[in-house]
Amino acid sequence: MTRELRAVEWAGDGLDLIDQTALPHRKEVLRVADVDALVDAIRRLVVRGAPAIGAAGAYGVAIALLQGEREGWDRTRIREEVARIRAARPTAVNLAVSVDRVLVKLDEGVPAVLAEAAAVQREDVEANHALGSHGADWLLKRLGTDRPLRVLTHCNTGALATAGWGTALGVIRELHARGRLETVYADETRPLLQGARLTAWELAEEGIAHYVQADGAAAGTILRGEVDVAVVGADRIAGNGDTANKVGTVGIALACAHAGIPFIVAAPTTTVDLATAGGEDITIELRGEEEVLEWAGIRTAPAASRGHNPAFDVTPGSLVTALVTERGVLEVSAGELPSEHLA
Question: Which pTM value belongs to this model?
């Protein structure tokens, strides 16, 4: 896999999205040229990962503007359609932030909107490279070992989940490039297997040694001493360091705290939401019951069972050893809070 992999890419008059529901068996590109199709793609996880959704939403303003020109929408209708894109998934802050940033250019026309959306994407790639380097530097200094590291990660945080390169997977790729990575434990990530399908695909393409494990195995792997560090991404980080990430993350953080190993959150500053004071104020997306009651369209639970399917959980900042952004590293559990350093 080259570093030029892009999950989101503007192509003339529409948006090309790598269909992440088809991976790893097929690499398909979905062309999106209207608002309904983009909202559907975001909700169905054709495109997913907070920074990637943010990039898609940024280009979505152009999609709404172009569709409005074709169909004779007034400015009110265009803004209503943009609002639908903005609200397509509620937990990740990047979607709303990116849409709002580009929406300011609406009255300047399509070229200005596209230029701003491209800037959103470019800045995310640059931030990911920077945070990957910061994270690797901090981790190697913190652990103080010359041997290659064993890293656990959860969900997918690579080029597929971002505008390019990756956040937590960007740190992992940087360690690999330096010859300081032994292996990666990739949690399968229930219920849609983003780890088994997507992270494993990216690691295999990169030639990085890895294991795929059940989410329920993660804590035991950590407590048996088979992991040196856990590195995860984030969908929203509150001002006190509380972090919303894919459901199952908080159990990893608890295991790391018990084992005395670092638990690192890697995310660009666009994922830090200083308007959200703490994790209790983060809206947790509840997805459809069928994702946990069925498998491949076949019912696996009794007919009387109900499904509880939160897409995210919140890890308290007290369990976050370090938050790595493109600006550097905050040792959150030691009292360095995003609200104090990134305002």
Answer: 0.88
